[in-house]
Design brief:
The protein is of the alpha/beta class. It contains 13 helices and 27 strands. 29% of the residues lie in helices and 23% in strands. It binds flavin-adenine dinucleotide.
């Protein structure tokens, strides 16, 4: 029996969970809710990652919430500013009062007889607690907080220096004057390299294969001008829409004319690094733009560090770590006192929660995702998952709005259970994401599938989702609304149908 009952349990107090709290209390204000957060702090990603230079790689006009203007001068913002923005949102709206820290949700069992989830929580002090809720909203992000991904490196134990993963950056790591090798070519590596290069005794970015790298001004002059001359909300919405539309245009162009976009991006790198730099080897990926996420560098900082001689890029394979650095397949040795393994994240499905429906375990790999947020045969559950080709929050805001519409629809019709049901035998099953990135490919088999047609098709398209999630009818014939015999309310009463 659950100790407490809420209309909605939100899992996670990161950017998505705090946003979910806001939308819920604003658009479905009669629902009780609690946010359960496994860690002792709010902010998720923006609190966890503490490596030097940590910043967004998309602009804050689209990574910010639709309801709270981003007011800082920098559009590509540092981690602490983003954390403060999330904290401020939670405090000024009283969302912080709904958060319970040190509460990791480990299991949730749906009972159709009760129209309720029994949620099992492990607390930081080793206790197990049980809560009940009518709707479970997973906002716990997409990766494992316990540890980042590090491949097996031969000879790792031989290395006499320090090895760090960016997900667990030691606050006291002193790299000043030291030779640092950063292994990786993704967003974290390109963020770290210019920042470390400011004081290290030389930084080498060691990559197996190159990534598309695009420079963009950290400050958006047009946005700052608008903010100075227009009301904050209006300026924010204008810049947000401009960025959304530009992002969509660029993504479409990359899909339609990959060769031209590829050539343009590489030419921009050439313009930065000059004709003598080996752009072919170090900045020309084997895949097309947007088959993986592009890396954004603010104010060309990576290129500046390379030009200044403080950083360099090596494209090669690791043969083994040695006592004093790394030996490469080419035979070359890279001396290092510090090795940073910017080798990525371990993805996690359904926030690591063991789900069951009426006693049957849910295998996430076997369910179809409905509108990219609910799951075939799983009642009263949604998850917040952002875009791969645009800012995370754009999709999360829409998901939260949709969940509140769904809850309001259920209240209006007296339905206590809603389940996506696929009745179309011709519907094909496709992988959840089509990204070729290693971290996606390592985990894609565990993820839910998407369908070949709407509403099971995952569209990475904000404009379409906006129409679909904000305006289209909730009752689309695919969602089955029902009213089990008896259910609990947050007031604790058992209600009959
Ligand atoms: C270094 C880095 C940079 C990024 N930069 C960008 C960017 O520029 N633009 C962009 O769009 N995206 C970016 N992302 C993706 C980023 O994670 C999202 O933008 C966004 O912060 C995700 O917010 P979230 O709240 O959904 O998840 P998270 O930030 O991961 O927060 C999830 C929270 O849920 C908690 N939690 C998880 N499981 C449970 C559980 N079972 N029980 C209780 N609590 C749980 C976690 O402890 C955490 O606090 C970046 C990611 C990383 C790692």
């Amino acid at each position: 029996m659950a100790d407490e009952f809420f209309d909605v349990v939100i899992v996670g107090a990161g950017l998505s969970g705090v946003g979910a709290g806001y939308h819920l209390q604003t658009e479905a204000p009669d629902r009780s809710y609690v946010i359960l957060e496994a860690r002792d702090a709010l902010g998720g990603t923006w609190d966890l990652f503490r490596y030097p230079g940590i910043r967004s790689d998309s602009d804050m006009y689209t990574l910010g919430y639709n309801f709270k203007p981003w007011r800082e001068a920098k559009a590509i913002a540092d981690g602490l500013s983003i954390l403060n923005y999330v904290r401020e949102t939670a405090c000024e709206n009283g969302i912080d009062r709904h958060i319970r820290y040190g509460q990791k949700v480990v299991a949730a069992a749906w009972s159709s007889a009760d129209a309720a989830w029994a949620v099992e929580v492990e607390t930081n002090d080793g206790q197990t607690r049980r809560l009940g809720c009518n709707f479970l909203f997973l906002c716990g992000g997409y990766y494992d907080y316990a540890a980042g991904y590090t491949p097996e490196f031969a000879g790792r134990d031989r290395f006499q220096g320090t090895i760090v993963h960016p997900q667990r950056w030691p606050a006291d790591l002193d790299y000043a004057g030291k030779r640092v090798v950063v292994i990786g070519s993704g967003a974290t590596a390109v963020t770290l390299v210019p920042e470390l290069a400011r004081s290290a005794g030389g930084v080498t970015m060691l990559q197996r294969s190159p990534t598309y790298v695009v420079s963009r001004p950290a400050e958006d002059q047009f946005a700052n001008w608008l903010r100075a001359h227009l009301p904050a909300k209006l300026a924010y919405q204008l810049v947000r829409w401009r960025n959304v539309l530009f992002g969509m245009y660029f993504f479409r162009l990359a899909r339609k004319k990959p060769a031209a976009v590829k050539a343009r991006i590489i030419q921009m790198v050439r313009d930065q690094l000059g004709p003598d730099y080996d752009v072919e080897t170090h900045f020309t990926p084997r895949y097309n733009p947007w088959d993986q996420r592009l890396c954004l560098v603010p104010d060309a900082d990576l290129f500046q560090a390379i030009k200044a001689g403080a950083a360099s890029i090596v494209t090669d394979q690791i043969e083994t770590f040695t006592e004093t650095g790394i030996r490469l397949a080419s035979g070359r040795e890279l001396p290092a006192e510090v090795i940073v393994t910017a080798t990525g994240l371990n993805l996690k499905v359904m926030n690591g929660i063991a789900l069951s429906v009426d006693g049957r375990p849910v295998d996430p790999a076997n369910v179809l995702s409905y509108k990219g947020m609910m799951y075939e045969g799983v009642p009263n559950l949604a998850s917040a998952f952002g875009y791969t080709n645009a800012s995370w929050t754009l999709k999360c805001d829409l998901t939260c709005e949709y969940v509140t519409r769904l809850l309001n629809r259920m209240r209006a019709t007296g339905a206590r259970q809603v389940t996506p049901v696929n009745a179309d035998p011709t519907l094909g099953r496709e992988p959840w994401l089509d990204f070729t990135s290693g971290y996606v490919q390592r985990a894609i088999g565990m993820f839910p599938k998407q369908g070949s047609k709407a509403p099971w098709k995952l569209r990475q398209n904000y404009a379409l989702d906006l129409l679909n999630l904000r305006y289209a009818k909730v009752d689309d014939g695919v969602l089955r609304f029902s009213n089990p015999a008896a259910g609990r309310t947050s007031e604790g009463a058992t209600v009959a149908a």
